[in-house]
Amino acid sequence: MTRRLSRDEAAQALGELRGETDRCRECPLGERATQSVCGEGAVHAKIMVVGEQPGDREDLQGRPFVGPAGGLLDRGLAELGWSREALYVTNAVKHFKYELRGKRRMHKTPAQREIEACHHWLEREIAIVRPAAFIALGATAARALLGRRVAVLSERGRWHEDAAGRPVLVTLHPSALLRGDPQQRDAAWAAWLADLRIALPPR
Predict the structure, then answer these.
(1) To the nearest 5 percent, what fractions of the chain are helix, strand and coil?
(2) Could you tell me if residue 2 is inside a domain?
(3) Residue 42's domain spans which residues?
(4) For 63, how many CA atoms within 13 A lie in the half-sphere containing its CB?
(5) Residue 82: which CATH number?
(6) CB 3.0-4.6 Å disulfide test: which of 15, 18, 67, 179 passes with 55?
């Protein structure tokens, strides 16, 4: 893609991408998921937020970050005075990977081969939206964007560069805050907001 698509062209291309990912069977995840979950937001967003994969609610609704982790993301953006609608929010993997525990579908981390199989879909989204920078939420997203293993705890809160020289800010996935020590929750929340503040413009 050599030129920047118009907003209408980009919206159409993203719609076509959703249909293609829904039919994707390049790894086993597409067979079990309800549907694929591609990104949403501003088609010419300056910042693309990339998470790991859809969760149970995302799989059912077909939208990214609408579950508990998405609620934390929305809360954080609101506290920073930034609109989610100004961002493009997506995941590195487009189908929900889970294991059944009784009737509950419990999140399971995608394998590297599954991340690699899905990577060209993320690259297509990037080529259409053409963001100026990325926020990588968690290790799976950081690895997908930077092409290497990322130690999130030691590399968070600062800019890195992907292979194309684009800036990538690494931080925790909001689900990590949900799983964290309740006694450390306030400090963890403040640290996470400090990470995001580096990427987001002032009010």
Answers:
(1) 45, 15, 35
(2) no
(3) 7-199
(4) 9
(5) 3.40.470.10
(6) 67
